[in-house]
Write a structure and sequence with these properties.
Layout (H helix, E strand, L loop, with lengths): L7 E7 L8 H13 L3 E7 L4 H9 L3 E4 L3 H7 L5 E5 L5 H9 L3 E5 L6 E2 L3 E4 L10 E2 L4 E4 L8 H4 L8 E8 L8 H11 L5 E6 L6 H8 L5 E5 L3 H10 E7 L2 H8 L3 E5 L6 H9 L4 E2 L5 H12 L14 H14 L3 E5 L5 H8 L2 H4 L10 H13 L3 E8 L2 E11 L2 E8 L8 H12 L9 E7 L3 H9 L3 E4 L6 E7 L5
Parallel strand pairs: 1-2, 1-4, 2-3, 4-5, 5-7, 6-8, 7-9, 10-11, 10-13, 11-12, 13-14, 14-15, 19-20
Antiparallel strand pairs: 16-17, 17-18, 18-19, 20-22, 21-22
């Protein structure tokens, strides 16, 4: 008899209604689908339309309606990965979750508070870790490489078969500014379009007026609360989409559909500015009447550049890797290196696959390593840790301290590569520094440009990067600790 595998749990706390929109819930559903093969997904919502709750359940996820935040906090047992996608849940709320020994992931696009999360996901291009105030251990998944798209959009085959002179209008699930009506009024007078698809959500409050306005024009097709496959089809078939700089714009671009986009909310500005610079859409600025009209005229001018490719379809794999890493972090421990570690450290130091990234890549003999190793573990200015996964050594991290600075070095046994252990040992080592009476202000590292894996680790953990003044084949990374808790 086969024993069914018990999946680790991911608890998602997000809301959606006519005021805050449905974007948080939609991208969390996308996240859940990226993780579902490996994790058991639970949604906890204070506000959620019935239709979206049904979509969550139909996706195979657990759904709980809560009436106060204490209910969610009380559900936490300490072995969950918690995802927050919520502007109103502040730093103190994050600390409550951390105090339960849970791993915490924050999906964010406004960077307006101090974050205690283990991971921040911000899919907006042009954002960097320097935009955030975070804990020392926080790592980042930033940019379009981590786009939170549902499978239909993430894995779409983007052919160019569009319905000529067709346009899609969609301002999300609520559109409390009623930009749908404004755009429809413009399109009613613009006879250049042969088909106008208008999509609204269940939280749209001006439906009755909209239906009356388009009833007499047979070019208009109104759809309400489309599911994933229906939305994918209507975007795919449209030659143009008029949408805000939010999640739906990313879906439109993923399907190679031309877009007119702008912003009407603070959390859309970063996406708008970054993608506008890339030439990803025709700008409608703040969706004023004149801006929309001007953008439509540009679309018909036939002087448009090709739509840039910004989605590679691999963001689900990257995000799953991040969550798997968080899952195994509790199985990792660091211990100060002792003489008993001489043999294992020599095994790593003499491994050709690791040695090629050492600054001295020449083969090393045991006695030479022994002399170096003894010097390091006896040096009061060196903090040298061995990392263990389920009590088995997998790598090391070392801090050579000089005054207020520390030079960091780390390695992972090739047998354990591709498990995120490089990120874990580096962030765990930096956390351990707080246990020592050190007046450290900055941590630095030097990495060969060919060592792509190590460079990715430092970037994930928010280290700034520059080419070394000494050698253009070496990158220098640094993190200032006085901005971290």
């Amino acid at each position: 008899m086969e024993i069914e595998e018990v999946k680790a749990k991911v608890y998602i706390r997000a809301d959606g209604d006519e005021k805050i929109g449905l974007g948080h819930l939609i991208r969390c559903i996308a996240l859940g689908k990226m993780l579902a093969a490996h994790f058991d997904i639970y949604f906890f919502c204070f506000k959620c339309p019935i239709s979206v709750a049904e979509e969550i359940k139909n996706s195979g996820f657990h759904f709980y309606q809560i009436d106060k935040e204490e209910v969610f906090i009380e559900k936490l047992e300490g072995n969950e990965i918690v995802v927050l996608d919520h502007y109103e849940l502040d730093s103190s709320y994050q600390k409550e979750i951390i105090s339960k020994s849970c791993k915490l992931v924050c999906i964010d696009d406004v960077h307006d508070k101090y974050f205690y999360s283990d991971l921040i996901i911000n899919t907006a291009p042009g954002i960097s870790s320097t935009n955030y105030k975070v804990a020392r251990y926080t790592q980042f998944a930033i940019g379009m490489d981590y786009a939170l798209l549902r499978p239909s959009f993430l894995n779409a085959k983007n052919d160019l078969k569009k319905v000529e002179k067709s346009v899609l209008v969609c301002f999300g699930g609520s559109d409390h500014e009623n930009l749908t009506q404004r755009t429809v009024n413009i399109l009613k007078k613009d006879t250049r379009f042969s088909l106008v698809n208008v999509v609204v959500g269940v939280s749209y409050k001006a439906l009755e007026d909209l239906e009356k306005d388009i009833k007499s024009d047979d070019r208009f097709r109104l759809s309400i609360s489309l599911d994933e496959s229906q939305m994918k089809e209507i975007i795919h078939d449209s030659d143009l989409a008029i949408v805000p700089s939010s999640g739906i714009l990313i879906e439109v671009l993923a399907l190679n559909t031309r877009a007119i986009s702008g912003f009407y909310a603070q959390n859309q500005i970063n996406v708008y500015n970054s993608l506008r610079k890339m030439g990803a859409f025709i700008s409608a600025k703040n969706f004023s009447i004149d801006s929309i009209k001007d953008a439509i005229d540009i679309y018909f001018s036939k002087s448009l550049k090709p739509i840039p490719s910004i989605i590679d379809g691999k963001s689900g794999e990257r995000i799953l890797t991040c969550f798997k890493q968080l899952e195994i972090e509790k199985e990792v421990s660091l211990k100060m290196a002792t003489l008993e570690d001489l043999d294992i450290t020599y095994h790593w130091a003499s491994d050709k696959r690791l040695r090629e990234f050492f600054f001295n890549s020449n083969p090393i003999g045991f006695e030479e390593h022994r002399s170096w190793f003894l010097n390091k573990i006896q040096d009061e200015g060196c903090l040298y840790f061995i990392g263990y996964l389920k009590e088995k050594p997998f790598g090391s991290v070392r801090f050579d301290v000089s005054g207020s600075e520390a030079l960091i070095s780390f390695l992972v046994d090739p047998f354990y590569h591709s498990k995120g252990l490089g990120t874990i040992i580096l962030k765990s080592g930096v956390e351990l520094l707080a246990d020592y009476d050190l007046d450290l202000k900055v941590i630095r590292a030097e990495v060969f440009s060919e060592n792509i894996a190590s460079m990715k680790v430092f970037k994930k953990l928010g280290y700034s990067q520059k080419i070394s003044d000494k050698n253009d084949k070496i990158y220098e990374f640094e993190k200032y600790l006085n901005t971290y808790a």
